[in-house]
Write a structure and sequence with these properties.
This protein is mostly beta strands. It is built from no helices and six strands. It folds into two domains: about 1-30; about 50-80, no CATH class.
Length: about 80
């Protein structure tokens, strides 16, 4: 017994994730659980907030599509850093 593709109706082996003919994702076999992605809430870093129980945010220096750069004060060694 195999998994029939919902798009092209090609018969695929039970352990296949994608159709061997048209590459359509196949529904999971019975008894197989899907993994759920956990979302971590985004915490805004604003002036005066403390990050990692150590760094006090002084200002945002810049940002791009990949992230942000902050100037912070390291309260453990009592020195500012970027």
């Amino acid at each position: 017994m195999g998994i029939e593709c919902p798009k092209c109706h090609f018969e695929n082996p039970d352990d296949t994730l994608y159709c061997g003919k048209c590459a359509t994702p196949l529904p999971p076999s019975e008894g197989v659980s899907e993994t759920k992605t956990l979302e971590t809430p985004v915490r805004k870093l604003t002036k005066g907030t403390t990050f990692a129980d150590r760094y006090e945010i002084l200002e945002e220096l810049g940002k791009s599509g990949m992230g942000k750069v902050y100037k912070a004060h390291d309260t453990e060694i009592k020195k500012s850093c970027t």
